[in-house]
Specification:
By secondary structure, the chain is α+β, with helices and mostly antiparallel strands. The protein contains 7 helices and 17 strands.
């Protein structure tokens, strides 16, 4: 294990997860960059030359450039000092997709520039110089479940690239990863509700569907009909009733847990696109009959948390 990884682990152990970070001298670290080390080596060679040849001009250049290096440490620190950083609301993400978070920064009214932000695994994002700004930072994908965010490194080489100031942040936001939506090869819970006569969904017969057109939501495609007749048709959302639908885990449990959750996730998105009220029953939780974006997020979180 490298010294850099050991240092990062030590920082993680001594830093509590929090929702907001204020950068001060307690959590900002400064060290010469690669260019800075070459710059210091050049100053050392110049100083040895000045001593050997007793050259006042070379002495002058050494002290001037040394002053530039000292000032760059000061400016680099104050470019980062005083920043307040937090995460905007995190939405549930699909299993297998890369997680992207939005980091919001308040610059306390100062002009700042030259920031780079990145997760432990992921590409760096560059922040522009503004009074307040946000940046999207991307990390690796996760399996279904609830996960903690890895650390985010923020660094800057301002103003000359001779020194690097950086900090690590561990936010307490959880990542809810819902299963990948998959259409069921059998009758879905929606079709079971329609056949049962419980009044949950009307319009599931073939006279309430239409041929697939470019731009239609693929989640409304009747895949079983396509498998039988090689014909793409979709449910017409305007023909569906507004009666609530009851999605139940027991309808798909014979497929196994992960497939059952993927089929339920598909139904959740389908009903949300159709603007129908619905409830979701899982082994460990039940989400009541509602509709809208907030209800969708609750259902996706419940699917992610399902043990």
């Amino acid at each position: 294990m490298t010294i850099k990884k050991l240092f990062r682990r030590w920082l993680e152990r001594r830093t509590q997860r929090r929702s907001e970070y204020l950068l001060t001298q307690k959590n900002i670290y400064i060290f010469p960059s690669k260019q800075g080390f070459f710059f210091l080596l050049m100053l050392l060679v110049m100083l040895i030359t000045a001593i050997n040849y007793q050259s006042s001009l070379i002495y002058l250049f050494v002290f001037m450039l040394g002053g530039v290096f000292a000032v760059s440490i000061w400016l680099c620190f104050f470019n980062m000092q005083g920043l307040t950083l937090r995460l905007s609301e995190m939405l549930p993400v699909e299993a297998g997709e890369k997680v992207t978070v939005n980091v919001v920064a308040d610059t306390a009214g100062k002009q700042r520039s030259g920031f780079y932000a990145a997760f432990e695994v992921g590409p760096e994002s560059i922040w522009r110089m503004e009074q307040s700004f946000d940046v999207k930072v991307q990390t690796q994908s996760f399996e279904r479940g609830v996960h903690s965010l890895s650390g985010i490194r923020l660094q800057t080489y301002f103003p000359f690239g001779l020194v690097r100031a950086w900090t690590w942040m561990w936010f307490d936001e959880a990542v809810y990863v819902y299963p990948r939506p998959l259409p069921s090869p059998e009758h879905t819970s929606l079709e079971r509700n329609a056949v049962s006569g419980s009044g949950q969904v009307s319009g599931q017969e073939l006279d309430n569907v239409k041929a697939y057109d470019k731009g239609d939501n693929v989640r409304r495609i009747l895949w079983k009909h396509f498998a039988k007749r090689d014909e793409l048709i979709v449910r017409s959302p305007e023909l569906l009733s507004a009666d609530p639908v009851h999605l139940e885990y027991d309808s798909y449990m014979h497929f196994g847990k992960e497939l059952a959750l993927s089929y339920l996730c598909f139904d959740v998105f389908e009903l949300h696109e159709s603007r129908l009220p619905f409830s979701l029953s899982l082994p460990n939780v039940r989400v009541g009959e509602e509709q809208g974006e907030l209800h969708l997020r609750r259902c996706l979180r419940a699917l992610a948390e399902c043990a």
